[in-house]
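sanity check this record:
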Amino acid sequence: MSQQYRSRPLGSDVALSEAYDTALLDLDGVVYAGGHAIVHAVESLGTAREGGMHLAYVTNNALRTPDAVAEHLTELGVPADAADVITSAQAVARLMADQLPSGARVLVVGGEGLRVALRERGLVPVESADDDPVAVAQGFGGPDLPWGRFAEAAYAISRGAVWFASNTDLTIPGARGIAPGNGAAVEVVRIATGAEPQVAGKPLPPMHRETVLRTGAKRPLVVGDRLDTDIEGAFNGGVDSLLVLTGVTDAAQLIAAEPRYRPTYVDRDLRGLLTGQPEVSEEGDGFRCGGWTAAVREEALVLDGEGDAIDGLRALCAAAWTHAGEGTCDLDAQKAVARLDL
């Protein structure tokens, strides 16, 4: 590994909103789910902003334009401008513009956010493989995207068009549960063509580059709900991260995380921006956080104590990550996690 592996969540003596100048916030599963604000999100972001933290919204969802996202956030009570929103559509459009001539035709499989981003980079969206596109841009198109769009992409790619994807998230959180994401749609086209797309979104470098260029962040903190996009993206970018448990990732998945998926901090929700983070310290053969102690004994994760459940999870992470080293913890965490009210 090029980076030292993390063996426990870190502590912070000051609120994270004071320790970092910019929060790079994921949207789905962090700020809202299914269009509705997640509990504590609005007031927490308002307090962080009033305290001087710059808030930027970084989403792999390429469906909507930054203007539409900013308008939605403002309606939810989180004032935002289009300039505060960075999407994977913008990242893939820049990636494509770096490789294609100005005015190149691009077959779009996705929503308006992708079309707007391509036009901003001097590329021309088209709707059919018969329009002679030189490339295909695929992004999340929402639940009503016609199946025929995948066929158009397959036709164009088989004729030599270069394939790009905004992101490959297999799932997306919604008000009713977890739904298929753009990654699932990308798999459809991959199966049909045998091709591989160039991908821009989190956790890959094009998205990090786009975010830094647009925000100018000096001390950014990535805030997300997914290990395989948000947290891995922070790891790849060499910046700190906060995982919140309001979206896709659950406690057992966090405990089992390999190094590139291990966040710097862990908290229930966005209230974690407004507080310091407790230290996780070694104690005997285990690790203590708050009123909890966790250890690996006889090849099992053991949790003792009481108090704030999130402290128990932090202690469990330290025990599991230390035991796993640079690998994945394969110990059964369910019994230990069952003691926590998360």
